[in-house]
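Submission sheet (multi-component)
Chains listed below:
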Amino acid sequence: MIISSMVKNGAILCGFALLTTGLVATINTLTADKIAEQEQLQLTNQLQEVLPHSKYSNELSQDCVIISDPLLGPYDNQVIYRARKDNEPVALVIRHVTPSGYSGDINLLSAVYRDGTVAGVRVTKHEETPGLGDKVEVKKSDWITTFNAKTVQSESDDRWAVKKDGGQFDQFTGATITPRAVVGSVKNAVLYAQDNFDALFTAANACPEVTP
Amino acid sequence: MSELKTLYKEGLWGNNPALVQLLGLCPLLAVTSTITNALGLGLATLLVLVGSNITVSIVRNWVPKDIRIPVFVMIIAGFVTIVQLLMNAYTFGLYQSLGIFIPLIVTNCAIIGRAEAFASKNPVHLSAFDGLMMGLGFMLVLVVLGAMRELVGQGTLFDGADLLLGPWAAILRIEVFSFDSQFLLAILPPGAFLGLGLLIAAKNVIDAQIKSKQVAPPEAEKGPRARVTSLT
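Outcome: structure written.
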């Protein structure tokens, strides 16, 4: 008796599982292209924000290398996009992460020209305090654009710090940790780009296999 | 007809999932920092609630009592995943700003609560209407709370509406007043608790007033009637 009801209930559950999974799978197939397109669009927009499209002529989001280096943050496999104009190296767009923010990791995207100056920086993801640390977002404040056209002279370049630490970048009222983390991380990314610029451009393209 | 009216009153006011049942507080408190986020999550919850209520009601006679909960959970999870995929595809910006709270709709007790308490015992059209009204009730509270927090916290209304409704909606953004620095208490989670507390208090005050008005008329009628009986 109990066996037969177990079998019956099991069969019904199984039927529902197949039905819902089938439905989800169908919707997934139908929306997969659209979602990939949206992600690609977002990537293009992000890249466009840090590096103007007029500066390069290749398909930037399809030309990259995967790098693991402590200068780019504590995680392995950061993506670096390579901008070329008429096959000449122009700039690198680097994804990097800093764990030194006030709350969680701050993900950044920085573009560095061949001469070592910064083309643009954007925060792509963060969990900083709303109203204080979130001024690193370009939506909230134009602070992040103060990196534009700056360059790092050397490892010991003390201008790359917030004003409180004797550097050239403003801190925010009530939030010093967040800009300090961002400045430090961008400095490291720029240093990495300067040291490895030509080597990165000769490396094999890793992008087609990587989903953004 | 009166059944529909009861459902409509219960969902929007008398048994409002957010103000009376106090269900689904996690998303309620977490995402109501702006109207746009609140509306987005409210709509997603509404869709899931209507969809799951209809489905649960359709299958209610074929599902043995012993396994109804896993079946309901599966149905709800299926709907949430579908809504999540659709939002990811068509409202990408909003999908990113709501983040983890879309999949967390699965854990919103208001949804399984309605499936178990109502849809599993009632015909399809009533269940659908119940889902719609409960969803609307939940969404309204989300939006009101979002409006309060957005207004007090950053002095705007409909900030980022274009993420939900398309580029044209950017003009909906109203800057009521501007601060040098935002009023953090309203934006952070404590502001959500305080706001919800105020809303529940307001509802209770209104209920008390309605009640006191309803009690009064019968007493007023009593007088004349007593006189009539004494005359005859």
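Remark: Chain B touches chain A at residues 33, 59, 62-64, 66-67, 70-71, 74-75, 77-78, 81-82, 85-86, 88-90, 92, 153-154, 181-184, 187-188 (CB under 8 Å).
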